[in-house]
Amino acid sequence: MTMSAAVPGTAEPDPPVRVRIDWLELTCLPCGDIAGYIEDRRIVRSVFPGGIRLERGRLRCGRCGGLLFSGNSGTATSRAGIG
Ligand SMILES: [Zn+2]
User: Distance between terminal CA atoms of the chain?
Assistant: First the structure.
């Protein structure tokens, strides 16, 4: 009995799973601060609780109600690498 017996469909080892997060900064102009990030173009994550609120389909600052503008963007390989 050998561990290297060929099993159909498993000949190629799976490449290690690499997390890739496309992120986009959301900045509030009046506050001059980053309110949060959009991850993978669909997940909105504020940097502090209530930092972002949705109003009539627009993202607004949870502190002052100002419109949020997209700032820097990039790709991170982990949550910690965002920003
Ligand atoms: Zn604000």
Answer: 51
The mean pLDDT of the chain is 88
* Ligand 1: centre distance to CA 15 (Å): 43
Q: What is the pTM of this model?
A: 0.73
Q: Cα of 30 to ligand 1 centre, how many Å?
A: 5
* CA 68 / ligand 1 centre spacing (Å): 8
| pLDDT, tens digit (0-9, with 9 covering 90-100), for 33-44 | 999 999 999 999
15 domain residue, yes or no: no
> Does 66 reside within a domain?
yes
For residue 23, how far is its CA from the centre of ligand 1 (angstroms)?
20
Domain residue limits at 34: 21-81
Within a domain: residue 72? yes
Cα–Cα distance, 70 to 49 (Å, whole number): 19
